[in-house]
Amino acid sequence: MKPVGDMNLLVENSIYDSETYERIAKAITFMRQNHLSQPDLATIAQSVHLSEYHFQRLFTRWAGISPKRFLQYLTVEYAKSKIAETANLLDLTVDTGLSSPGRLHDLFVKLEAMSPGEFKAGGRGLQIGYGIHPTPFGQCLIATTCRGICNLHFLDTTSQNAADLLRLEWSNADIIPDQQATQAICDRIFTPVAATNKPLILVVKGTNFQIQVWRALLNVPFGGITTYQGLAEAMGRPTAARAIGNALGRNPIGYLIPCHRVIRGSGELGGFRWGLDRKTVLLGWEASQMQAIGQELT
Question: How far, CA to CA in Å, does 164 sit from each of 154, 160, 253?
Fold first, then answer.
């Protein structure tokens, strides 16, 4: 199929619209599935029905680098090199007693656990405001309480009912739309304009083990990759890799609790609550941003 003229107009729009994300995700999936044949720009552009020029422009606006360079971050070899590098950082964290290594580009996140009583109450007496917002990784649902962010879910379609999704976790809470409050949170997460030491507070409910896993994830740096086994060892629970996988699947706050940075020791992606295509997009985008940071510092 030849590129359609109207489709090329998407390049002029925000990179935060859902159509752009879907096109980028489709292109990245195509690149990953065909990386052994090293597809050229024309072939990748054709897979998403854009001209070479418009695809290159759209992709570079989104990732900050060319599709060809981005393709390097989707290989098993790259993943394995980042696993080793991240392991050293996690070891440093444990040795120095830091809650997380000092690193550029990371958001300052603090996780608080609800009490057992609050857990059992299912949100009774709690007011939760929510909104749906575009991000570089598709539409997301953000929910917040007076104490902090309680959910961040990526949505496959805008037809998903946000309130129903939240009631699966907060059956007794008062759930109301509050687009203005969650827009401010979304802007701070996905379009930060300046560094700040004010933490983003996450308020989660889960078992003691799940919360331990989610806290450990906060130590995995932006652009870093670890494994299920590596995370288990960093937690001092070397036999718990399988249980860790289950805890990752219950992560209530995507992106901020970075379960997308955990993959298999083989370099393959493993599972992800919000889909493997989105996990590929997230990991590749973070790698591209780290390269851009490195170039700025040299």
Answer: 14, 8, 17
| Contact assessment for residue 175 and residue 166, using Cβ atoms and an 8 Å cutoff | yes
In angstroms, what is the C-alpha Rg of the chain? Answer: 20
Q: Is the pLDDT of residue 10 over 50?
A: no
DSSP codes, 100-148: S---TT---EEEEEPPHHHHHHTTTT-EEEEEEE--TTS-EEEEE-SSS
In this structure, the answer to whether residues 35 and 143 fall within a common structural domain is no
Side chain identity, residue 129:
G
Which residues have C-beta within 8 Å of that of residue 112, sequence separation ≥ 6? 147, 148, 201, 202, 203, 204
CATH number of residue 121's parent domain? 1.10.10.10
pTM over 0.70? The answer is: yes
Rounded to an integer, the average pLDDT of 112-133 is: 89
Element containing residue 150 per DSSP (H, E): strand 149-154
Residues 6+ apart with CB under 8 A from 291: 65, 69
Q: Just list the catalytic residues.
A: 259
pLDDT score of 255: 96
How many residues does the structure list for the chain?
298
Under 8 Å between Cβ of 154 and 276: no
Question: What's the average model confidence in pLDDT over 221-249?
Answer: 93
**Within this chain, do residues 131 and 169 fall inside the same structural domain, yes or no?**
yes
Residue 174 structural domain: 76-297
Q: What is the mean pLDDT of the chain?
A: 85
